[in-house]
Amino acid sequence: MAIETTFAIIKPDAVEKNLAGAILAHIEKAGFKVRGAKRIHLTRAQAEGFYAEHKERGFFGELCAFMSRGPVFVLALEAEGAITKWRETMGATDPAAAAEGTIRKLFGASKGENATHGSDSPGAAARELAYFFASYELL
């Protein structure tokens, strides 16, 4: 398997509950190297731009409001097969359905407030990383 870099967000619900450190520890314990990290507060326009592919879906407004309600951590994570590995480490979107020991099972409250985001493909990872990081920021 090849070394990849994927994109992750520690979402506002987790930051509000002071869980960012615990989630970062979980990430590192899972074998990821953090190649980039920023704590930012998304504007509504930034959230809308990031989630533009979902603009026609009914949950778009609620999602953008949620993602811009407080600070988040945006991350570039590196590992062998990072995209698949990160999605497995996060667990299912719905924390109630997530496997034991996954981030969403441990720290998520609901399908909407599930603590983390992760890219679902190499194309999405490239787009999402570029949305938040200049190439020189990724070590």
Spell out the blueprint of helices and strands.
Elements: E1 3-10, H1 12-16, H2 20-29, E2 33-40, H3 44-50, H4 60-67, E3 72-80, H5 82-90, H6 103-107, E4 116-118, H7 122-132
Antiparallel strand pairs: 1-3, 1-4, 2-3
Describe what this molecule looks like in 3D.
- This protein has 139 residues and is α+β, with helices and mostly antiparallel strands.
- It has helices at residues 12-16, 20-29, 44-50, 60-67, 82-90, 103-107, 122-132, and strands at 3-10, 33-40, 72-80, 116-118.
- The model has no long low-confidence stretch (mean pLDDT 97).
- The radius of gyration is 14 Å and the shape is globular.
- α3 crosses α4 (60-67).
- It has 7 helices and 4 strands.
- The protein has a single domain (3-42, 73-137), classed as Alpha-Beta Plaits (2-Layer Sandwich), CATH 3.30.70.141.
- A 4-stranded antiparallel sheet has the order 2-3-1-4, sandwiched between helices.
Question: Notable features of this structure?
Answer:
globular; 20% strand; 4-stranded antiparallel beta sheet; 7 helices; 4 strands; alpha+beta; single chain; 139 residues; Alpha-Beta Plaits
State the share of residues found in helices, binned by percent: 25-40%
- What's the CATH H-level homologous superfamily? Nucleoside diphosphate kinase-like domain
Regions with little confidence, pLDDT below 50 for 5+ residues: none
CATH-defined topology? Alpha-Beta Plaits
Number of strands: 4
| CATH hierarchy class name | Alpha Beta
Q: Could you tell me the strand content as a percent range?
A: 15-25%
Strand order of the largest sheet: 2-3-1-4
Tell me which CATH architecture applies here: 2-Layer Sandwich
Supply Rg: 14 Å
Mean pLDDT, all residues: 97
Oligomer: single chain
Secondary-structure element order, N to C: EHHEHHEHHEH
Overall spatial form = globular
- Counted by DSSP, the helix tally is 7
